[in-house]
Amino acid sequence: xTEKAKDISQKIKSILAEHxxxxxxxxxxxxxxxxxxxxxxxxFADFVEKLNLAGFDTTRLDLMEMESVGDLVExxxxxxxxx
Length: 83
Fold this sequence. Notes:
The protein has 83 residues and is an all-alpha fold. The protein has one domain (3-82): ACP-like (Non-ribosomal Peptide Synthetase Peptidyl Carrier Protein, Chain A, Orthogonal Bundle). It has three helices and no strands. The longest helix has 18 residues, at 3-20. The protein starts with a helix and ends with a helix. The relative contact order is 0.20.
């Protein structure tokens, strides 16, 4: 993982941790939004809005396919590296 990818991953996990009220260290890439973190569709939409406000462009991502924290990080990193 590149330094830029690590930075993006850390920022996403930080935003998520703040959003759901846990320490960042409690989150792993394997955590699934619905089954492990227990996020509702509304919670997930609010989280995505926070990502957008933080400067991440999620408009070209198929968010319905993002099951885990790692899926989301991987897709955002890929998109950021293309820009």
